[in-house]
């Protein structure tokens, strides 16, 4: 197996892990959290946002675009559908996951982290949740769709366009 194939396989695996993370949030975690009262919801999100910042998450979340970029370069060929699928996967992940996370979800997470829930009134808890939940869920759904598109491009690539030895 060539090193470029290993890089593409790792990009696919890391992409699948991140896609699964966002998928699980969209179709279970967010739905369950939505049923909590305001304080419990905000507390749960504050804790989740702290706990997700770990080496396993960073390795997959930031490793994916690095591996995708490397694969895009290694498979560069303007006449190859394989190249365009990898390029589409790379762009989908960088724009729909990295950029959206950095410009939308992280600022919302930081805003939420600044709230001291122990001294907040019921009204301020409601306002904080209203300012956080709908936009965060919307942007997470964008990340879900983008990461699924990334993974789909990579899987199609692996199934239909095998590398020549």
From TrEMBL:
The chain crosses the membrane at residues 7-27, 55-76, 83-102, 141-161. It comes from Sphingobacterium paramultivorum. It holds the Pfam family Anthrone_oxy. Keywords: Membrane, Transmembrane, Transmembrane helix. It comes from the Bacteria. This is DUF1772 domain-containing protein.
């Amino acid at each position: 197996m060539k090193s470029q194939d290993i890089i593409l396989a790792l990009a696919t695996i890391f992409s699948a892990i991140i896609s699964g993370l966002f998928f699980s949030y969209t179709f279970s975690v967010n739905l369950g959290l939505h049923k909590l009262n305001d304080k419990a919801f905000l507390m749960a999100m504050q804790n989740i946002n702290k706990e997700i910042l770990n080496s396993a998450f960073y390795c997959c979340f930031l490793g994916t675009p690095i591996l995708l970029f490397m694969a895009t370069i290694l498979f560069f060929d303007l006449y190859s559908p394989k190249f365009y699928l990898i390029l589409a996967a790379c762009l989908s992940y960088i724009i729909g996951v990295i950029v959206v996370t950095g410009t939308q979800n992280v600022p919302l997470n930081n805003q939420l982290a600044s709230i001291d829930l122990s001294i907040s009134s019921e009204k301020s808890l409601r306002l904080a949740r209203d300012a956080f939940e709908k936009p965060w869920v919307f942007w997470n759904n964008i990340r879900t769709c983008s990461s699924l598109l990334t993974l789909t491009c990579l899987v199609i690539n692996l199934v239909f366009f095998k590398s020549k030895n």
